[in-house]
UniProtKB/TrEMBL annotation:
Subcellular location: Membrane
Alphabetized PANTHER family for the sequence: CYTOCHROME P450 CYP749A22-LIKE, CYTOCHROME P450 FAMILY MEMBER
Family annotation (SUPFAM superfamilies): Cytochrome P450 (SSF48264)
Keywords: Heme, Iron, Membrane, Metal-binding, Monooxygenase, Oxidoreductase, Transmembrane, Transmembrane helix
Pfam hit, one: p450
Cofactor(s) required for function per UniProt: heme
Family recorded in the similarity comment: Belongs to the cytochrome P450 family.
Main location: membrane
Gene3D superfamilies reported for this sequence: Cytochrome P450
PROSITE patterns cross-referenced by the UniProt entry: CYTOCHROME_P450 (PS00086)
Protein's name in the database: Cytochrome P450
Amino acid sequence: MMADMVASVEMMLERWKEKEGAEVEIYEELRTLTSEVISRTAFGSSFEEGKQIFGMLHKMMALAETNMYTIRLPFISNIFKTVDEMEAERLDQGIADSIIDIVKKREEKVKCQQDVDSNGYGSDYLGLLIQAHHDEDETKKISMEQLIDECRTLYAAGQETANAALSWMILLLAIHQDWQEKVRNEVISIFGHEKCLDFDGIARLKIVSKLSPSFMFHIARIMSIRRISFIFLIIFLLQTGMFILETLRLYTPVYTGFIRDIGKEATLGKLTGLDGVQCHIPFIMIHHDPKIWGEDVHAFKPERFLDGIAKATNNNPTAFMPFGMGHHMCAGSNFAINEAKITIAMILQRYSLTLSPGYVHAPHPGLTLRPAYGIQIILNAL
């Protein structure tokens, strides 16, 4: 998986050789990169094979944002569809057809014994889904519809959120040159200017959160250990850099948070939640609450995480939830963090980043928090 991430970043950096000293639209560049990474690591295909799916997904997300607050009338909406609804159905069918086509190609390889992978349909995410689809045990078998839904979700969630998060990280590095130098010096001290990245080196990056064992167990009590392994939790927390943590706090990709149904009447402080009521927990508001983070809540200060998340949040782990919390914590959080660290490390090995004078700061609150007018960066080769 890591080799695929590195190969995808290498391809991007090769394209950048023709743009040295010039302005680059970093948001679009990282959109291509994150699409490539998902296609390679999860589906074993290049971006060229998966770009049709991503194109349709981006159009669907744009339609979803446009119609987010549209009120639909019961029964009538099932008979009379809007132009956007008909276009969304067409795109949805196109995505399903494309995924089925990729699945059929994988199945044909197995039938023709062209797939030399010892795991049959492949050891990547798609291969595991196809194996589950063909499982003889009916209790473990998934339908083609479920397989398509899983692929659709991974394509959309895995690419869009990573794209947004990486873009804000690059922006902050370009603005805060002192932190750009700190991160670059750390990367070069471990990997040098040309050395290929490896897992051990990534884990050794020292701008990391220092967490006490008691704090990790505190989070473990809140989370369902049955769903999220404690080992995964430790790896995720110990490998998260201060810079990345602060970026995720300031520009949380899934800024809207999540909505949860209250299963039974409950009291929280002076509030009483009734059975059946939906509770909205907005991450961005929690991450920008001065009562938790102090009066400098809107300032970029990675050092607030110097002594770990525990001290930064006054031992309140639910005050920092860039990937959610509990049963439905994002399963791809560790994947996203490693993708970010690899991408940033490889870029800073070769380039100094400067913010273009033409950049307009306008975070757009769509399905994810992304730059409305892109992020223009000037690349200076080292």
